[in-house]
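Sequence in, structure out. Go.
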Amino acid sequence: MSTSVLRCLVVDDDPLSVQVVLNCIANTPFLTAAGSYTNPVEAAEALRTQPVDLLFLDVEMPLMSGIELLRTLQHPPLVVLITSSKDYAVQAFEQAVVDYLVKPVSYARFLQAAQKALEMAERQTADDPDAIQASAPNAAFTFVKVDNKLVRVTFDDVRYVEALGDYVHVITDRSKLIVYSTMKAVEEKFPATRFVRVHRSFIVNLDHIQALEDNSLVVESKHIPVGQTYLRDVMQRLNKF
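Output:
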């Protein structure tokens, strides 16, 4: 599961309520919307084939209640229940949901629930050394864990990534972030359309390559070696410009 940019699905039979939650998601940096449904049956099918990290789920819906929908899922995501009534609180927490919001939902209360979900997701993956978290498809940024806090990194700002022992240094135009992770994690989770592995110790942002000189790349006046096993792929990527 991604623990920095949580992919969210909204399920509510009221389109206005759906839009309220989508607006809240759009204003929360560590959340991204993966879609929404007003039909719980369609939502249940989508969740079986396209899992998400966090589900904002209305309780009172026709055909199938939110609680019933949850019971159909073999591997449910983190869940925040939303309802116009407090009467479902006991059932909600029997399902081990993250939080329980009563309509109308304010952004402050939404953010509190979202932060709980993020903290829970972090605990679930606390032993994962791949501290650079997956971003949503086509996302412009991700979050990296630095000294037990999540720091937002915009892909445009990243010049290159360098492996040093058990850590990677993410070099941006403004800072150097030291992250406990692996190069494999970076390579898998930074978008391949924008980044290329050029050496066992270096990944480079294609947009910041200034020149190729004697099997090394020039990135912001730094010469980065290109390993022989990566040279062919690098040349192919450069020739696409």
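Check: The longest strand covers residues 31-37. The helical segments are 15-26, 40-49, 66-72, 89-94, 107-124, 183-189, 228-238.
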